[in-house]
Amino acid sequence: MKKLLTTLSNIWKIEELKGRILFTLMILVIYRLVCQVVLPGVDPAQLSNEQKSGLLGLLDMFAGGAFSKASIVALGVMPYISASIVVQLLGIAVPTFQKMQKEGESGRKKLTQYTRYLTVAITIVQAVGYVKTQITPEAIVIDHTIFYFLSAVVLTAGTLFVMWLGEKITDKGIGNGTSLIIMVGIIARLPVAISQEISSVFAGNDGGLIRLVLEIVALYAIIMFTILIVQGVRKVPVQYAKRIVGNKQVGGVRQYIPLKVNAAGVMPIIFAQALMFVPSALIGLFPNLQESWLHQYSDITSLTYSLTFAFLIIAFTFFYTAITVNPTQMSDDMKKNGGFIPGVKPGLATSSFIDEVISKITFPGSLFLAAIAILPSLAVKVGIQQEFAHFFGGTSLLILVGVVLDTLQQIESYLLMRHYDGLMKTGRVTGRSGVPTVTSTSGAAL
Question: Which residue spans adopt a coiled-coil conformation according to this UniProt entry (predicted)?
């Protein structure tokens, strides 16, 4: 406890760090207040209180409940993330975008601007779909035509405002703004989830306090295991040849390439979840399919759903890793800088070696993602309330772990620069070196 109090005191002594933390907290409070503002023309009492599931549940979780409340920021930062993913994929497949990625700061600014334009386009489309499908006609108290137009404009402005808040946190606050906004939205649901679980545990005869303690212990163990895996890297040694530059000798040192065990991040889960939502959507459009085999895919606790979900995650993990990690480029960059892997010839042999290492570590990484993804359904199966079960795995847990580690790493860097002790007694917080992320074109890890 004394170590913790000393560290907190040291943090408060650094004026720049204190200012950044207070600024971040202020922006996050503003965001949470805006989440409570309902779209103009909507009667909140007429909104459906039915809990969202599938992809809609994921969107509602990322938006901190604003999605189900018909808030002016109901779409949150998801359109921006979608636009960032599209631009990132274009940077892999389209030569023009590849060229911009290699242009340094000027290229990055161009890609950021394209991402913003694409965010507006995606938000307009999603806003129209949102008001058409998620807001019942009974809840609309003004002319429907005017409401649909007004809501599309307001929701687009709301998403751009949230995106601006995230950029301000990244520039003047601590941590990554977009990630922190998503994390706050997820944490905002934690108190309600815990209260529901406590009420459920003590209402029945299933163990009461003992069961609640066991659930907390299990959640703690899962979080620790998640941190262990997402931080895991395979270090490939790289030796740099000695060179004489002027009167100085440079090079001749050994460094390491940290290859992530989970290089694909949370994207395989998001892609797989989107596909698993298709059967439910078909049943909604064609009610006569309710009794067909598709019904098994609308129940997240069914064995068929879990196995299919896990298979899709494993497949998407290999796919996304293949398109985002380029062994050939890594080999070429290494060769240009006079580096080589001991015992491996430069060029094609190095590229093949790196590709083989990535393939070997991607398999256990994909199994880990699959296990994390189906843990919430297993938690529901053993009697844990669905709201609380979301925190036992899935995208929410991975994002929480990643953002917390990233923020702690930045705080520790400020402490070490001012010659204070770090946040840990031994070692250092390594941040998100192995955390699943999507890197936007503006350099933000989502």
Answer: none
Q: What angle do CA 245, 248, 249 make, to 5 degrees?
A: 85
The domain of 346 spans 200-392
The number of folded domains in the chain is 2
Cα–Cα distance for residue pair 37/29, rounded to 1 Å: 13
pLDDT tens sequence across 387-433: 888 888 777 888 888 888 888 888 888 887 776 655 665 555 655 43
Following DSSP, what letter does each residue of 48-92 receive, concatenated? --PPP-HHHHHHHHHTTTTTTTTBTTTTTTHHHHHHHHHHHHHHH
What is the spatial distance between Cα 76 and Cα 31, in angstroms, rounded to a whole number?
10
User: What's CA 436's distance to the chain center, in Å?
Assistant: 7
Q: Is residue 145 part of a domain?
A: yes
User: From the CA atom positions of the chain, what is the Rg in Å?
Assistant: 24
Start-to-end C-alpha separation, the chain: 33
Is 443 a domain residue? no
- CA atoms of 365 and 369, how far apart (whole Å): 6
26-40, 228-242, 245-259, 349-363: least confidently modelled range: 245-259
Average pLDDT score over residue span 56-84: 80
332, burial (CB in 10 Å: exposed 0-12, middle 13-18, buried 19+) = middle
Domain harbouring 224, CATH code: 1.10.3370.10
Identify the residue whose tokens are 């993804």: 373
Same domain? For 34 and 113 the reply is yes
- CA angle in degrees (0–180, nearest 5) for 220-392-295: 165
Strands of 233-240's sheet in order across: 254-260, 233-240, 339-340
Looking at residue 130, the DSSP 8-state letter turns out to be H
Q: Are 268 and 317 in contact (CB under 8 A)?
A: yes
Q: What digits encode the pLDDT tens for the residues 112-163?
A: 888 899 999 988 988 888 888 778 788 888 888 888 889 889 999 999 999 9
Measure the CA–CA gap between 142 and 138, rounded to whole angstroms.
Answer: 10
Return d(Cα 255, Cα 337) in angstroms, integer. Answer: 12
Lookup result for tokens 């604003």: 66
Statement: residue 61 has pLDDT above 70: yes
Q: Per DSSP, what are the bridge partners of residue 254?
A: 239
Task: Tell me the C-alpha distance between 308 and 10, whole Å.
Answer: 50
Judging by DSSP bridges, how do beta strands 233-240 and 339-340 pair with one another?
Answer: antiparallel
Decide: 237 and 341 in contact? Cβ < 8 Å. Answer: yes
* Paired residues of 38 in beta bridges: 71
> For residue 132, what are the CA distances in angstroms to 69, 88, 125, 135, 147?
15, 30, 11, 6, 10
